[in-house]
Write a structure and sequence with these properties.
The protein is α/β, with parallel strands linked by helices. It is 39% helix and 19% strand. An eight-stranded mixed β-sheet has the order 5-6-2-1-7-8-9-10, with helices on both faces. Helix 3 packs parallel to helix 5 and helix 8 crosses helix 12.
């Protein structure tokens, strides 16, 4: 079975967050576990505003049955001539297409050629079809692309990472051929370092709350900072990690009332799990998440989460592994004050809750999904 995975940008393009790593790790694990499947990835060298180094029109074979071809993009995130030429031939020789995007010319071309060559196709929207995403930018253009895709290609198979995302598709009239397969939990990777610089910034006599993520509008860092500072607590500290230095300086300049209980740690890479495990609670009050890898990364690090009801982890409180809040400033402030007054350190994370994201089970679900589609007439 030959699967072509089409992704506009790919590992190791870290700028795009956890999704890139999830796709790469999933493809790699599927191929490790099943020798009778071959996955080829067609992508570009895009990495934010720059290109990946030493990847121009280059084939990298990660495994015997798993390889990635990085097409040079003349206009980063906008146009790649080699991608256009390569795509048609790769589609012709594949059994199944797996499109990991929807609102780009990469997606339009992939769907068109899947129709032209009568190929089975899976689309993973990766949160792009949520109500929040559709209304955030280029609403009319997104609507036109979506209508083009569902009109030109019948019998599309859809992969979503949560029931929340499945409901997003149902709101758009897509009710069949939807498979929910979550991202799997990575094993925490801790490294030995001489100086734990972030712990020096966290007062361990207080309850340490921490955020880790990109400065995306939907992450609602503004709401978190405003609520934390207005709560004016004595026993809580807050650290903001993972955002670019330029964005960090903008926040500090705009929020002049921030005091010494708010710390900015910039980008974390290898020390990510060390940081998460040092917190009492990971907090990210997203307005919308199709999955949210960092929540799971925190949980496997042993740190409970504080999330919003607009994420797939809104059932975390049922397992006593965290708290779920409304995106209401007053309610968040009251919660923080209560947490401050109780002076409660972090709760233990439920192993039962994490077990539903078992890697072996999720890889089996993916492979079974591919096999099921391959056998359909």
């Amino acid at each position: 079975m030959k699967v072509l995975s089409v992704v506009p940008s790919y590992y190791p393009a870290k700028i795009y967050g956890g999704t890139i790593f999830s796709i790469h790790e999933t493809n790699q694990e599927i191929c490790k576990s099943n020798k009778n499947i071959k996955i080829d990835v067609l992508t570009t060298t895009a990495n934010g505003r720059v290109r990946l180094k030493n990847k121009k029109n280059k084939l990298i074979r990660y495994l015997k049955n798993y390889s990635v071809f990085y097409c040079h993009d003349e206009i980063i995130n906008r146009f790649s001539l080699s991608f256009i030429f390569k795509l048609q031939n790769k589609i012709k020789e594949s059994d199944i297409l797996h499109l990991q995007d929807i609102f780009s010319y990469f997606a339009i071309l992939t769907v068109f050629f899947s129709y032209f060559y009568n190929k089975k196709i899976i689309i993973s929207p990766r949160g792009s079809l949520s109500e929040w995403s559709l209304k955030s930018k280029y609403f009319i253009l997104k609507k036109l692309i979506f209508l083009f895709i569902i009109k030109i290609k019948k019998n599309i198979f859809w992969h979503v990472t949560s029931n929340l995302e499945k409901n997003d598709l149902k709101k758009l009239g897509i009710k069949e051929n939807i498979r929910v397969i979550e991202n799997f939990a990575f094993k925490p990777s801790f490294i030995k370092i001489k100086k734990k610089w972030w712990i020096q910034k966290l007062d361990k006599k207080k309850i340490a709350l921490g955020f880790l993520g990109r400065m995306d509008k939907k992450k609602r860092v503004d709401l978190l900072l405003n609520s934390f500072c207005k709560a004016n607590t004595n026993n809580l500290t807050l650290s903001i990690a993972g955002i670019e230095k330029k964005q960090m300086n903008t926040i500090v300049r705009e929020k002049k009332y921030l005091n010494k209980r708010v710390y900015f740690l910039s980008y974390l890479d290898k020390t990510k799990y060390n940081y998460l495990s040092s917190l009492d609670y990971f907090i990210m009050l997203s307005e919308n998440e199709n999955f949210g890898n960092v929540y799971l990364e925190s949980l496997v690090s042993g740190t409970p989460i504080i999330t919003s009801k607009f994420t797939p982890f809104k059932d975390v409180a049922n397992f006593s592994s965290g708290h779920v809040l409304d995106l209401n400033e007053n309610k968040i402030i009251n919660f923080l004050k209560k947490l401050d007054q109780n002076k409660i350190k972090k709760i233990k994370v439920s192993r039962k809750y994490i077990s539903q994201f078992n890697k072996k089970n999720i890889i089996f679900k993916f492979y079974s999904f591919y096999r099921e589609i391959e056998q359909k007439i």
